[in-house]
Write the C-alpha cells for this entry.
Amino acid sequence: MPFLRLLLISTILFLQMFVAPKGPLITVSLSSDKCHFFGLFSYTEAEFLALLSNGEYLRIMRMHMFVSPSDSGTWKQNKDGVVTLSSRYKFRDVEFGSLTFYMANDKSLTNFKKLKMELSKFLQHSPLKEFSPEAVSSIGGRSSYKDTGVFLGDITIDPEIAYVKKIVPRSDLEGLLRSMNEYEVATNKNEFRFIPLKYEHWIFLEWQNAELPNARDRKQMVLELAKLEKDEMPPYYFVEISQEVFEKEAGTTQPFMFYKEMNKNRPHNQEATQKITFPCSSPKH
C-alpha cells in the first residue's frame, strides 16, 4: 500500500503545473486546551488524525471495506512549533536517500535485524558503485519482481530510481546501513514529528521524519494549495478539518470513485468513531 501510493504521488507531481504561491507561511501554535482535527484524502483511502486536549492522539484509517483506528498515543508541541507524536503501537520507518525499510511495530524488528545483516554481507561481497533495482530488491530474499514486475522486497526503492533511472548508488545502501545501525540503538523509534503550517486559509502538516516525501516538502505543498479552490481538499497530505467533518468522514467507509456502482454494496461502518469521547469542543477556525 505505501509503495502504490508513493508511485501515484510521483506520477502526479511529475505532471503538475506549478502555480506561484501567494501570502506568507506561518508556523501554527496548537492550543493544548482544544482538540485539533486533520484529514488526508486520496482516491482510494483516507486517514484522520485527532489531537485531543487531554494530551492523547488518535489516528484512523478509512478504506473501501472498513474503518479502523490505526494508532494512538500522546502528543506535545515545543516552542519551535514541532509536534511530537509518541505512539503506543507504531515504529517509524528507516530511510536513507532513495531507500526505505518499512517498520510497522516491534514485530518488524525481527525482519529488521535479518535485513541489516544481509545488507552488510551484500556490501562486503560486492565492490560495485552502482546496483540494479533487481539486485537491491532481492536483498533479504523476499523479492517478487520476477513474478510481478514490481519491486516489493524488504527494501523499498523510490519509484523514480527503480523504474526511471534504474540505478541505485552504493552510497544509498551504505547510508541505509548506517541509518539502521543508528535506529537499532535509538530510544525514540516510536516518535513521529511534524510542524503545523498555515498558508492562506489552510493549516497543513509538514512531516519531518515520517510519511511520504510529498508530505515533507512545504514548498511543493504550498504550490499545490495555491491551485485549489477554497472548498477543494488537497490529496495526499493532512489538512485541518472541523470536528464535525472528522466524525462524519472518519465514521464511514471510503467511497468508490472510479466504480461508483460498487458503492451500493459498500459497508458503512460507524464503529471507528462511536467509541470516541472527545474531551473538548471543536477547534475554532
